[in-house]
Structure formats: C-alpha cells, structure tokens
C-alpha cells in the first residue's frame, strides 16, 4: 500500500525534527563562538573570500549542515523496507571500509581513522555505529534473547564487537567504546541483566585494582567468598566450583591489571586514566585539558559571560574547543542556565526517541530505536562528563554540537533513519 505524500508528512515525528534543528542550530552558534576572534571583521561573509572563509570551522560547519539537510530528505524518501533488507549488506560494506581505512589512511595524531577524498575527510568509525545498529536490530528481529540461547548471544556479540576491534586497531579507542552502549538496547530486548552486572562489576574491580593495594584487595575478596560460603551452605554444596572459579577470575583480574595497564594500554590512554583518578596531579601538563575545561565552565557562573565574551576559549586556553570540548563554550558564555537548557534539550530528545521506539510495530524498529537512544546517551554523558572531569578524555563528539561533518552526518543518519521507519510504523516490514 502506497502512502500519499501528505499522509506521510503527517506521520513524521515533527517534534523530534524540531529538537534536531534546535540542537544543530545552538551547536553552530557555539562553534562560531568558540572560533570567534575579537579582531574578526564585523561581517565576515561579506568581506572575506570563499578561500579565507574555509579557514573558519563555523563556515565549514555551515556547509556540513547544508549537506545534512539534503541527507535528511534522502533518508526520509528512501523506501523504509530498505533499512531492514539492506542491513547486513551495509554492515558488510562498512567492515570492508574499516579494513581499507586501517591500511590506507594517513596517520593523523597517531590514528589511522580518516579517509581523505579530495578536500573532504570522513571518519568511517562514525558511520559504523549506524550499520552495526541496523545489523544487530535485523539479527535480533529473528531471535529471542529471553531464551538465553548462547549461540545467538555469541553471534550477536560478534556482530557488535567486530567494528570496535577494527577501530581499536586503527588507534581510535574513544569511538570503539561507544559500541558498549548498544548493550542497553539489547537489555531492553531480553538480554540477561547478569551480563550487564558482570561487566559493571569487572569495570569496578579493575578500577579498584588501580587505586587499592593488590594484596589488600585480594584479601577482601577472599573474606567475602568465605563469608558467602559460610552463611550459604547451598552454594558450598552445589556451586563450590563456580564460586572458586569466580574467585580465581577476580584475583586474576586484580593481579593482571598492572600488566594490562603497562603493556597493553598506550601512553596517552594511561595518561587519561591517571588524570581521571587524580586531575590535580599535573595541571600544567597531562591535566591541562581538563583543568582549563573546568575553569572555563566554572567561570560562566549562573548566566555566563555573554555571547562571544568567553575568555578561556577566545584565547585558546581550552584545547579542541570546537570539537571535543565544545560544551565549555556553553558553560562559559551561557552559564549554568545555558548548560541546563542544553542538557534538558538532550533529555527531551532521548525521551522522544524512546517513545518513538516503543510505538514501533516490529522488533527491528524498536531495537533500532533503542540503539539510537543508547548511542546518543553515551556520547552526551561521556562528552559532557570529560569536560568537567567525571569521565576520561576519550575524544568523542557531542551529538549535533561538535564541529565535524562525519559526526553530524552519522548522528543525522542514525536519527532520521529511525524517523523514516516510524513514519511507516503502521505497515509491516519485509520480515
């Protein structure tokens, strides 16, 4: 059954579109403010040539926004069945592209993650989140995670882990971490909460192993195990091998964390962890980024210094101020009020995406919606967290805010693919 253009237009979730437009608009304003110079011409568009304008991130972002508008139209007019039908094809193509990037990309800041096509640079890792979400959603539409079928769970793990493994191989660990957010979507579809608990417990144990003396930590876990066995004779009689196996695993993690930290992690990754644990240890060296970021946000006070009046960003104290640390501009120039408004907009967008996901008629559409929400949530919390010292500086952009065509395109594709599926939610997908 064909849907008329008027009816299709009415089916689009325009509130989500409005939130997208507002966030992209505010993001561009912040990019302009972060790259603004006090001695810049009053009307740069009218007084500078195109070549000179291309030196400014705010102008290049305008071009990316214009192309994103075209991309939105394409995404909304593409047959909604294509997202389901071509999910594995797009995923396979992205795996090939990640492999090509790994071997042919020119090293930039120690990372082989950018493909250069003439004057345009694209980061395939950004788009891998979209194709992985599609492939995982397609796979989950044909299984039931609640059945605890280990074969299905291992296949799903393979689909999810292959792209980040290739991304890590290109020395882009920050983007690889984002794929962990997909676990939240899998949990919604019936994945055992035990898996999430085990992963969270493992992360806590590794962190404690970096902060607490190893012998003391092993002693604590040993006492806990003996106490559990002493108070619960059922575990002692029927699950003793499992309990001992858990203890051995925990002790192995505690003892092996030093080897992993010193021999697997690269120097800049170790620095990020050290700064997260003790940000004041080297404020003029390794801790410079986070220190200046917190100064910029804190100096904004309640209502900020005013548009284009931020000093920390204008005088380049804050690094990567139009990309990874764009939120500093919000805090410095618009203060607590501006930061609250931006966070509120993101929360409303996340609520709307979850609402859209829940009203889907297919498992594929619902799962994909939760994948979109999970990826955006991870980016938002980690990016904002690293600007105030609550998360390690892993170099991931703030959705719709940070400068860059790859990030803007990838988030646009994620969001508007969902809206295209939602517009046809009353019709059945191919399967």
Q: How does this structure look, described?
A:
With 431 residues, this protein is mostly helical. The protein has one domain (5-195, 275-423). The chain is 70% helix and 1% strand. The chain has helices spanning 5-11, 14-34, 44-47, 50-53, 57-77, 81-85, 87-104, 124-140, 150-169, 173-177, 182-188, 193-211, 214-231, 233-238, 240-264, 267-277, 288-299, 311-314, 327-358, 363-387, 405-423, and strands at residues 115-117, 120-122. Strands 1-2 form a two-stranded antiparallel sheet. A hairpin with a 2-residue loop joins strand 1 (115-117) and strand 2 (120-122). Helix 2 (14-34) runs antiparallel to helix 5 (57-77), helix 7 (87-104) runs parallel beside helix 9 and helix 19 runs antiparallel to helix 20 (363-387). The mean pLDDT is 83.
What is the CA-atom radius of gyration, in angstroms?
24 Å
Structural class computed from helices and strand pairing: mainly alpha
Regions with little confidence, pLDDT below 50 for 5+ residues = none
Beta-strand portion reads: under 5%
How many domains, in number, for the residues?
A: 1
- Cα-to-Cα separation, first versus last residue: 16 Å
Q: Name the overall outline.
A: globular
Q: Write out the strand line-up for the largest beta sheet, numbering strands in chain order.
A: 1-2
Mean pLDDT over the residues: 83
Q: How many strands in all?
A: 2
Number of helices: 21
Order of helices and strands: HHHHHHHEEHHHHHHHHHHHHHH
Major sheet size, sense and barrel closure: 2 strands, antiparallel
Helix content: 55-70%
């Amino acid at each position: 059954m064909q849907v008329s253009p008027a009816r299709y237009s009415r089916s689009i979730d325009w509130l989500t579109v409005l939130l997208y437009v507002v966030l992209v608009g505010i993001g561009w304003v912040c990019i302009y403010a972060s790259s603004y110079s006090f001695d810049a011409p009053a009307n740069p568009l009218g007084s500078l040539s195109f070549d000179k304008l291309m030196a400014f991130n705010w102008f290049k972002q305008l071009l990316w926004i214009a192309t994103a508008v075209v991309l939105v139209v394409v995404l909304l007019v593409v047959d909604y069945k294509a997202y389901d039908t071509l999910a594995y094809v797009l995923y396979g193509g992205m795996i090939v592209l990640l492999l090509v990037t790994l071997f042919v990309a020119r090293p930039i800041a120690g990372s082989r993650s950018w493909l250069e096509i003439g004057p345009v640079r694209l980061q395939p890792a950004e788009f891998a989140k979209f194709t992985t979400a599609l492939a995982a959603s397609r796979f989950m539409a044909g299984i039931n995670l609640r059945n605890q079928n280990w074969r299905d769970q291992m296949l799903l793990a393979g689909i999810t882990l292959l792209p980040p493994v290739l991304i890590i191989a290109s020395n882009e660990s920050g983007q690889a971490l984002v794929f962990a957010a997909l676990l939240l979507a899998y949990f919604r579809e019936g994945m055992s909460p035990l898996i999430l608990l085990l992963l969270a417990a493992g992360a806590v144990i590794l962190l404690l192993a970096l902060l607490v003396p190893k012998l003391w930590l092993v002693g604590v876990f040993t006492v806990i195990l003996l106490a559990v066995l002493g108070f619960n004779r059922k575990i002692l009689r029927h699950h003793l091998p499992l309990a001992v196996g858990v203890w051995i695993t925990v002790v192995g993690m505690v003892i092996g964390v030093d080897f992993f930290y010193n021999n697997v992690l690269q120097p800049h990754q170790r620095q990020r962890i050290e700064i997260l644990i003790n940000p004041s240890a080297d404020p003029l060296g390794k801790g410079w980024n986070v220190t200046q970021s917190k100064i910029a946000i804190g100096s904004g006070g309640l209502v900020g210094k005013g548009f284009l009046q931020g000093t920390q960003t204008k005088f380049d104290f804050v690094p990567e101020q139009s990309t990874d640390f764009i939120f500093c501009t919000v805090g410095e120039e618009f203060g607590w009020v501006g930061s609250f408004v931006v966070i509120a907009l993101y929360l409303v967008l996340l609520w709307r995406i979850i609402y859209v996901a829940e009203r889907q008629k297919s498992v594929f559409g619902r799962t994909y919606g939760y994948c979109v929400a999970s990826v955006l949530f991870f980016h938002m919390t980690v990016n904002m967290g690293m600007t105030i010292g609550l998360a390690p500086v892993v170099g991931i952009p703030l959705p719709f805010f940070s400068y860059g065509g790859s990030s803007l395109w990838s988030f646009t594709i994620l969001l508007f693919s969902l809206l295209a599926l939602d517009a046809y939610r009353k019709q059945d997908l191919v399967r």
